[in-house]
């Protein structure tokens, strides 16, 4: 698998990762990437035909409930604090000409 990892690929990945690698670090990165790809290949050899796909390791489910208004419409109470109001709205100074 190591022969498909080229110097150009390492240069491209280092640009994407915004890394400046020395020639020795490039060789080490090449070896590390080859080990990772070999490991992925080893995982691809596993027989997963009887395994159900998972989206999450823990059982996750959405909890739905009806929306219930608990505090009601207290717009009149909130508008009591307004310095000025027009109908059921706060009246504020104009900010855009």
Layout: helices, strands, pairs:
Elements: H1 7-16, H2 23-44, H3 75-79, E1 85-86, E2 89-90
Antiparallel strand pairs: 1-2
Protein described:
- This protein is mostly helical and 97 residues long.
- The chain is built from three helices and two strands, in the order αααββ.
- It has a two-stranded antiparallel sheet with strand order 1-2.
- β1 and β2 (89-90) form a beta hairpin.
- It is elongated, with a radius of gyration of 31 Å.
Largest sheet: 2 strands, antiparallel
Class by alpha and beta content: mainly alpha
Principal-axis shape equals elongated
CATH fold-level name of the domain at 2-44: Histone, subunit A
For the record, the CATH class of the domain at 2-44 is Mainly Alpha
The arrangement of helices and strands along the chain is: HHHEE
Distance between the termini: 66 Å
What key phrases describe this protein's structure?
mainly alpha; 3 helices; Histone, subunit A; two-stranded antiparallel ribbon; single chain; 97 residues
């Amino acid at each position: 698998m190591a022969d498909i990892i080229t110097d150009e690929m390492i240069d491209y990945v280092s640009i994407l990762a915004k890394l400046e690698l020395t020639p020795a670090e490039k060789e080490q990165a090449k070896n590390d990437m080859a080990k990772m790809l070999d490991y992925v290949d080893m995982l691809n050899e596993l027989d997963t035909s009887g395994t159900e796909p998972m989206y999450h390791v823990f059982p996750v489910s959405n909890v739905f409930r009806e929306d219930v208004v608990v505090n009601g419409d207290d717009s009149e109470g909130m508008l009591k604090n307004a310095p000025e109001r027009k109908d059921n709205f706060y009246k504020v100074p104009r900010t855009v000409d």
